[in-house]
Input
Amino acid sequence: MRIVSLLPSATDIVVALGAADDLVGVSHSCSGEWDHLPKLTSTWIDTKASAAEIDRQVSTATRPLYELDIATLERLAPDVVVSQSLCDVCAVPAGDVQEAVLSLPSSPRLVDLSPHSLADVPLCFDQVGNAIGREHAAAELHEKWDATLADYRGRHSGSKLRVVFLDWLDPPFVAGHWMPDMIEALGMTCLLGKSGEPSFKVEWDRIAKAAPDIVIVACCGMDEDRAKADAVPLDCPVLFLDGHMHFSRPSPALLPSMAMLSDAVAEFLELA
Output
């Protein structure tokens, strides 16, 4: 089996299913331990720029944000290509990937992941598992997912915390998709963000009027130290978390993310 993953969350799933050695190519965002593999994607966006500058580049773009290396993809002759259709800002658009895959002589199977909510994430385990012949591993991972989340349900229900979760700061974006589910699962109230819906831009005044007890920030593609470079003009506690390795990856990575979120809230409540 020769597998190409075009986004970090897909790579997370392949690895969790025990098929890491079958990966022959990954995305440019799959760095670190995957640097020895060909990178099938690239972007002209300056990811080291400020949050405001990155937002400007994305919002004013007149060309695709990402490019797929079709020549290398053809040379790798994959059996399975795992992509996504959830967010064109996060990875190569699904239409571009589908067009490229259809043109390949190897006729690989395309797995298109689109998890909109927390409940959708384990369905992606099943999708990938079925495509790469790891159905049993997918079932076990699905069971682990359910059991782990069950352990965290209602953990902070006694706090009655009202939370705004932001996944970008300049301008501020309220996190959607699975983040409201994670907050509500812990027993807290998620303000503004809606389960299954995309993140959306909001004015600081609207956040202030929501009167959160705490604002949690985990910027997409940024760790907590980099996110702290942007000001949060609110008169309430602000908690920064790592959005790069956690929260923005709809994969098994959300399990340690849940633990991180729960522990951070517990520490906040202890100090409050």
Remarks:
- The mean pLDDT is 91.
- The longest strand covers residues 162-169.
